[in-house]
Amino acid sequence: MELDELYREAILDHARHPRNFGDLQGCDRSAAAKNVSCGDAVRLSLRISPEKRIEEIRFSGSGCAISTASASLLTLAVRGKRIEEALQLVASVRRLLTGASEPQDQLSGDLAALAGVRRFPQRVSCAMLSWHALEDALRAGETNSA
């Protein structure tokens, strides 16, 4: 029951008051993703430091509460992380949402609340949308910086 309450509170808070929403001027990486089944769309814009850390990240787009909340949570979770740490976090969120791991195994705080989405399999793609965009943006930079 405690996880259900955390899920509801975190999702509603981030959906109503998304953090880091809007355009990022001077970004050096970006990626967009769209969920064709429901119309949710997100664009992530990132600024990467010379040390390969996510210096700044913002998102824009439109979608359901779960999609918006997940993007908001993502921006808070990855800011300041090295690219490889952020990619590991993408994998952890994917495992959490697919039921391959439990919240306490990989994630803490509000991110753990995303585990509540597992009860609604049709909504997992909403929660993963921004994480797919992040992975695309970070991996695209691998070829550009090689």
For the largest beta sheet, what order do the strands appear in spatially?
Answer: 1-2-3
Which descriptor suits the 3D outline? globular
* Overall SS class: alpha+beta
Helical segment count = 5
Gyration radius (Cα, Å) is 14 Å
Whole-number mean pLDDT:
90
N-to-C CA distance: 48 Å
Which SSEs are present, and which pair or pack?
Layout: H1 2-16, E1 29-34, E2 41-48, E3 54-62, H2 65-78, H3 83-98, H4 103-106, H5 124-145
Antiparallel strand pairs: 1-2, 2-3
Helix pairs in contact: 1-2, 2-5, 3-5
What does this protein look like?
The protein is α+β, with helices and mostly antiparallel strands and 146 residues long. It contains five helices and three strands, in the order H-E-E-E-H-H-H-H. It has helices at 2-16, 65-78, 83-98, 103-106, 124-145, and strands spanning 29-34, 41-48, 54-62. A three-stranded antiparallel sheet has the order 1-2-3, covered by helices on one side. The protein is globular, with a radius of gyration of 14 Å. It starts with a helix and ends with a helix. The mean pLDDT is 90.
Describe the structure concisely.
By secondary structure, the protein is an alpha+beta fold. Helix content is 49%, strand content 16%.
Provide tags for this entry.
3 strands; alpha+beta
